[in-house]
Please model this.
Amino acid sequence: MNFQNMTSEARAALLSELQGQYQDFCAKGLKLDMSRGKPGADQLALSMELLDAALIAQDVKAQNGFDVRNYGVMDGIPECKALFAELLDVPAENLIVFGNSSLNVMYDYVAHCMTHGAGGTPWSRLPRVKFACPVPGYDRHFAILEYFGIEMVNVPMTAEGPDMDVLEQLVRDEDVRGMICVPKYSNPEGTTFSAQTVRRIAALKPAAKDFRIIWDNAYCVHDLGDTTDELLNVFEACAAQGSEDMIIEVASTSKISFPGSGVAVMAASAKNIADFKKQMFVQTIGHDKINQLRHARYFKDAAGIHAHMQRLRAILEPKFRAVLDALESELGGTGAAQWKTPNGGYFVSLDVLPGCAKRVCALCAEAGVVLTGAGATFPYGKDPQDSNIRIAPTFPPANELHIAMELLCLCVKLAALEKLS
Amino acid sequence: MNFQNMTSEARAALLSELQGQYQDFCAKGLKLDMSRGKPGADQLALSMELLDAALIAQDVKAQNGFDVRNYGVMDGIPECKALFAELLDVPAENLIVFGNSSLNVMYDYVAHCMTHGAGGTPWSRLPRVKFACPVPGYDRHFAILEYFGIEMVNVPMTAEGPDMDVLEQLVRDEDVRGMICVPKYSNPEGTTFSAQTVRRIAALKPAAKDFRIIWDNAYCVHDLGDTTDELLNVFEACAAQGSEDMIIEVASTSKISFPGSGVAVMAASAKNIADFKKQMFVQTIGHDKINQLRHARYFKDAAGIHAHMQRLRAILEPKFRAVLDALESELGGTGAAQWKTPNGGYFVSLDVLPGCAKRVCALCAEAGVVLTGAGATFPYGKDPQDSNIRIAPTFPPANELHIAMELLCLCVKLAALEKLS
Model:
């Protein structure tokens, strides 16, 4: 029954009952971590063949004849470029293959814009730099922008991606130099930008001529069920508008092979690739080509990656189902929270009653379950509604996940009843 | 016989004879590359066991209990820190283990100083930033400084390291914010800073309170013969002066295991480590810990690395001997060039007659042997004497090295005779 429709006596009785249950939880001495989108050990085990020495020893040379063990080939070996070109549906010449972290690539790109500009004045010399940030979003994106003193402006997410009316208005401000977003299975909501949204993004006419969109396609192949989302190829949409220079796409195998030991990639226009290579040439002789070759030879092609993702999905899908089942059975009809069922990605986004998210996280923490901090999904850690909580179901084993979700739902109800009292 | 002491007729006759030899070389259609300090394939073969999957599969957890395949442990796994702590003789807590490139670490550190400062004002907001550059030096160091608009000031190298009288004078200028150097088996001369030099460096009292020395200890274990150089521990020297914050030491296994697939490290004061970690926390979740664990388990300890270096030395020492023998037999007594016999490192530094280095490199290139470009060992590519040539003997197989050296010596003589004519 919807909490709002209950009598205050009934709410008080329920609160008291739930407080008892909460005390029982506290007594259990739990110590569970649902704070980050980390793969579980069972997922990691599926990639162990990637470490097979024979993958390299069979032939230490990449397709271009370079010994991958030695210096050289700054922008990535051809077979690894080909793998990502097929996966992301972009020409290989528009790709750079990096080291282990697309986060690092995004950081480096923003740092590059600060010190050397994105074709225009270095951003550090501008009086003000702002970025549009679809919210809720990814805390580590916001951390990069904050670190460089870039002012973040919230743009609400809709079911189709960022609210384009708001964004179109915003980019008329020349201080707004870019946007950072996860266009497919977004972090945390699992929203995929609609074709119409991608087309409107491609058609943006920002006042800033060096406006850049960091298109973090982190979950490009991370489907969870049979119903999958399709993301329009942003470069094709941009080609129709001549706006390819706006897009800096990144992706990685962090949640395909090994987090921290995968391969990251940037896809961008010829102009942007050439511009960024000027920095790379100073920054490094090259990234880990042995690891690039491992990935290229193990996965072989996009089909190889998709087949691998199916095996990972078999592990992930029950975890997401457990989360959604718990939410439905415990919170359905209470009016205490809202959530969406994502078709992919790494998170379930939960919106509790306004003003309750911090309380829910605090209650959970006190009982031994760490969630992503309330507010983390907004710039500066400030959720204006104090409502959004990111659930990361992938890391805990199934039994722990069940207990954690039971506690989380209990805390959501407790916070809601406290608020309504 | 010294060319200068020859009659002009004798010089003309010799020049004519050598020109004939040079034409014969040109007719051979050589295509050899001695431009970079790359290990040869025979060296790389000695590290192939490092790729053994069992090194990881035996236990995927690092000593701190973290699964190295997953996210986390931003500053490096404990066993890898311990390995470098022993090797560099610094406390493990003063170390950060990175990804595959110490060049990238140095770039990131300078970028960090530009945008966020080294404890003071961000360098990009200062009217002028200068760095002391011992010359000849490493072109990629100079490229980083040039990229960020840092003005480079040459400091001559002596047999004991940078000319300290010059350096002590220079750091009185507050615009001089740092120095970048290779203190052991320097690139290209193979000079190791004397204990006295290290002590005088530690005792520097720069006008700039955030003066930083990038101490690129790239060749810390790269001995070539039985006579080895010892480098005083710079942090111990600084401790006596309270100047530890001046030093940012870096090193890597690029020329121990695999270039591009090794592990890099920074050693610095507690203050500098804490400061840099603030950036790292935004920049990355962590570096490749699987590769860190590979290195830690394969080499085990400093003794393991030293034993490995002995095996590499057995390959390198004959190559260096071939270079030095060729120089001695072809150029000894001619007065056309000077060189030193390094006890370690990756290069032989050759000083030809002033005004002749570019000519020598051009002659070699025309005959099919690519050397490091003349001038590369100086900031802005400008060797004031046009005299220094860096010889990189490690990459070519022995037979190619012999031919390349024969040609190089011939070109040195040709250029000298042309000049004296």
In short: The domain at 3-44+306-420 of chain B is CATH 3.90.1150.10 (Aspartate Aminotransferase, domain 1). The first strand of chain B starts at residue 32 and ends at 34. The two ends of chain B are 16 Å apart (CA to CA).
